[in-house]
Amino acid sequence: MEITIVGAGAIGGTLGAYLARAGHQITFVDTVAAHVDAINAQGLAIEGAETFAVTARALRPDQVRGPLRTVFLAVKTMHTDQAAAQVAPHLAPDGAVVSMQNGFNEERIAAIVGARRTIGAFVNFGADYLEPGRILYGGGGALYLGELDGTDSDRVRRLVEALRTAFLPTTRATTNIWGYLWGKHAYGAMLKVTALSDAPIADVLADPLARPVLANVAAEVLAVAEAEGVRPEAFDGFEPDAFRFPPHRDPARLEASLDALVAFNRRSLKARSGVWRDLAVRKRKTEVEAMVAGLRARAARHGRPIPLVEALGAMIGEVEAGRRAQGWANVRALAARNDALYGAGAANV
Question: What's the Cα-to-Cα distance from 140 to each of 9, 14, 164, rounded to whole Å?
């Protein structure tokens, strides 16, 4: 299978390397010239859960030529429109772009290349970009692909089989890809809370004082999903129904889900989130502002406030701007904001 990976960082690099090792024809595309040069010179190295290197062609976006049959788009949310627009002229009439991203980028991709040529994907394995030509693969997690309209298709099944054989045996097709994307958005909000600290994900998820704010930041997202008529799906220990606002919340089930997420993250070699790495290591703008903006627009349509998510986004922005240092004090401050909004102990944990 010929696949073009646009965005050869943590997710795209990992997927492409495993597929290349299995014999698929992979072309990497990236805007970081040093990364492109390193891949062309010495290949792409995967470290962590496995250690290997693959030889593959790497290009800058302006070097891409079509026709492209299958594109895995793995860029940050705020770069989606530009990347999709660069791909569109080279995409074959029967080609497809698969969004291997966070957020709701499938809609934006579809607006550029067409809904018929867009496939949704939910990604939850752990990986980090280390340096040009080197990617850390932290370990497995859920990976689902699905058509945006919920239909079953041969093309999704073929992609799933390729990924299942080459990379993650647990890769699955789904007729509810939006359910997984909304579930990831809720869990992703929790991961953004952990990025405010300098502690590993698992340590924050296990912290008793952090758990109420973690529960309610996810609940705000899930309330918007409910208004959208979406049924969020469970994955890797995250049980969406357990995080719904009281009186629908089951305290015991919520504790069990949080404990399962702690265990899942302790097994991964990727101890901290991509947002944390952007803030603490790469010193670059995160995709948080773009993702909050996307949620804000949906929430506004339904009159659903997301004040805790907004506060979280503002704090991340302050870290980006150098006006706030990462640390546990941020989690405590957000927990105080949670208490002011929803009452102390409102998470029932």
Answer: 17, 11, 12
d(CA 173, CA 335) in angstroms, rounded, equals 37
Segment 112-171, tens digit of pLDDT:
999 999 999 999 999 999 999 999 999 999 999 999 999 999 999 999 999 999 999 999
| Contacts for 67 with CB less than 8 Å, ≥ 6 apart | 90, 91, 92, 95
Dihedral of the alpha carbons of 316, 318, 320, 324, in degrees to the nearest 10:
-100
- Full strand arrangement of the beta sheet holding 91-99: 57-59, 25-29, 2-6, 68-73, 91-99, 118-123, 143-147, 172-173
Tokens encoding 151: 């239909």
The tokens describing 232, both together, are 């969020």
Is residue 100 packed enough to be buried (19+ CB in 10 Å), middle (13-18) or exposed (0-12)? Answer: buried
Kindly state the DSSP code that residue 244 receives in the 8-state scheme: S
SS3 197: coil
Pairing outcome for strands 126-131 and 134-139: antiparallel
Q: Which of 46, 334, 340, 6 is nearest to 194 (CA)?
A: 334
For the whole model, what pTM was predicted?
Answer: 0.95
Output the CA angle 319-225-230, nearest 5 degrees.
Answer: 145
The answer to whether the CB of 96 falls within 8 A of the CB of 70 is yes
Domains in the chain (CATH in brackets) are 2-175 (3.40.50.720), 178-342 (1.10.1040.10)
